Amino acid sequence: MNSDGTYGHWIGGRWHEPAGAHYPVVNPATEETVGRAPEAGPADVDAAVRAAREAYEGWSRTSPAERAAILERIADVLASRSADLVPLLQQETGATIRVASSMQIPTAVDRFRRYARGALEPDTIPFAPQPVRASPLAPGGLVNAAAVRRPVGVVACITSYNFPLVNLAGKVAPALAVGNTVVAKPAPQDPLTCLLLGGIMREAGLPDGVFNVITGSGAMAGEALVAHPGVDMISFTGSTAVGQAIARAAGASMKRTLMELGGKGAAIILEDAAPGVLRSAISAVGSTWAFHSGQICTAPTRVLVPRGRYEQVITALEQYARSLTVGDPVDNSTVVGPLITAGQRDRVEAYVAGAREQGARVVTGGARPDLKPGYYVAPTLLADVTPGMAVAQEEIFGPVVAALAYDSEDEAVGIANGTPYGLYDYVFGSDTARAWALAARLRSGNVGINTVQRHPETPFGGFKHSGIGRDGGSFGLHAYSELQAVVW
């Protein structure tokens, strides 16, 4: 990085000047340039993949203990840089200072520490000896075997803009723990902290070329990375539309894929929800507004309510939304900050306008806050939404909640399952056995019962158009490895 805030790619353990130009990374709250990221061309992508390929043989043959020690040191160095990195992360993402300081660097540090331990997890599954009769193939005898997890090779990690460093750590840490090398391509909107991760890893003792970062303002860099014959696996977090394009391209050369795509979470409030459970449900649904302005794929953006309790829930949600402070994300009192770009703000506003035209009732929000500069959207609650409306079917990725009424549990399940997505749903009820049984009917990779809290060891991923594969905990180690059967 230059003193004027101009960054290079991180390739082969050093800064690499781009073949092309640079593009501005803009603060969503101030609309000012935070820094200038490098624009990758085909030569830059090729250089990064070649560096990762050349480093693979050595890194994949290091001992698990050595990989664990380096990952632990990466966590240490990253934690020590928190005071410098948090302001940059906050500026390029537009996250509130509370989210940036508590859930960006600390969570990334936790993920490196988790997979430092993960590098030491057993990678061999032994099988009991089997007596095998002689055949034309081979003599008979007692045959032994084991299944061993091996690294996939060079992994392309392509990440989303909402939690740039956290998302990248969640991919890179397990990939390195297993023995893979990585080429990272962060989202174009906020790649600067991810670029700095290269130097942090080098300081921690990661060999040159094991981790590389390229960036670009458009689709070209990602497309070239996906198509490169030197890439063995693509791990992608982002929209379903982009994920589908990646899957098509990866299929041509049988690259392995891990896809964490869009969501349209449903929070089903059951008829038996006692006052305490109902308060939990209101707070959980309110996280769509209060947590990173709804820019999170697991958000409960649809709330499904028994018809007899519908207006009660609408009133409670309206009060919650109106209590939230919208404004400058560096102000400690701010709960709802800006969206990532003007284009995303306009997209969210178009969804709200479309819902109004289709007959939805805008209970609160729906008008642009009187805040300039910045890409702000007010917390918006839409009532009288029907299952076929676009706001009930499509991922909005903003602070918008759609409320739908239902008359039976079967109808609620049908509405919840009635979108192309299946990432994260929620059930709120006092009878948790009933909620557990209902979870089995939801076509969703994750179900929260009376909570939106996550468990870090669970497998994370989606059904249907919400993705392919699972990461998280030990499942992340499985995702970045291949099983090899060894027989003797």
Quick take:
The chain is α/β, with parallel strands linked by helices and 488 residues long. The protein has helices at residues 42-60, 64-80, 82-93, 97-103, 105-118, 164-178, 192-203, 220-227, 240-251, 275-290, 310-322, 342-357, 390-393, 409-416, 432-439, 473-479; strands at residues 9-11, 14-16, 22-26, 33-38, 124-132, 141-151, 154-158, 181-185, 211-213, 233-237, 256-260, 266-269, 302-306, 361-364, 380-383, 400-406, 424-428, 446-449, 467-468, 481-487.
Can you characterise this structure?
The protein has 488 residues and is of the alpha/beta class. It folds into two domains: 9-261 and 466-487, Aldehyde Dehydrogenase, Chain A, domain 1, CATH 3.40.605.10; 266-457, 3-Layer(aba) Sandwich (Aldehyde Dehydrogenase, Chain A, domain 2). It is built from 16 helices and 20 strands. The chain has helices at residues 42-60, 64-80, 82-93, 97-103, 105-118, 164-178, 192-203, 220-227, 240-251, 275-290, 310-322, 342-357, 390-393, 409-416, 432-439, 473-479, and strands at residues 9-11, 14-16, 22-26, 33-38, 124-132, 141-151, 154-158, 181-185, 211-213, 233-237, 256-260, 266-269, 302-306, 361-364, 380-383, 400-406, 424-428, 446-449, 467-468, 481-487. Strand 7 (154-158), helix 6 (164-178) and strand 8 (181-185) form a beta-alpha-beta unit. Helix 3 packs across helix 4 (97-103) and helix 4 (97-103) runs parallel beside helix 5. It is globular, with a radius of gyration of 24 Å.
What's the SSE blueprint?
Blueprint: E1 9-11, E2 14-16, E3 22-26, E4 33-38, H1 42-60, H2 64-80, H3 82-93, H4 97-103, H5 105-118, E5 124-132, E6 141-151, E7 154-158, H6 164-178, E8 181-185, H7 192-203, E9 211-213, H8 220-227, E10 233-237, H9 240-251, E11 256-260, E12 266-269, H10 275-290, E13 302-306, H11 310-322, H12 342-357, E14 361-364, E15 380-383, H13 390-393, E16 400-406, H14 409-416, E17 424-428, H15 432-439, E18 446-449, E19 467-468, H16 473-479, E20 481-487
Parallel strand pairs: 7-8, 7-10, 8-9, 10-11, 12-13, 12-17, 13-16, 15-16, 17-18
Antiparallel strand pairs: 1-2, 3-4, 5-6, 6-20, 11-19, 14-15
Helix pairs in contact: 1-8, 2-5, 2-6, 2-7, 3-4, 4-5, 5-6, 10-11
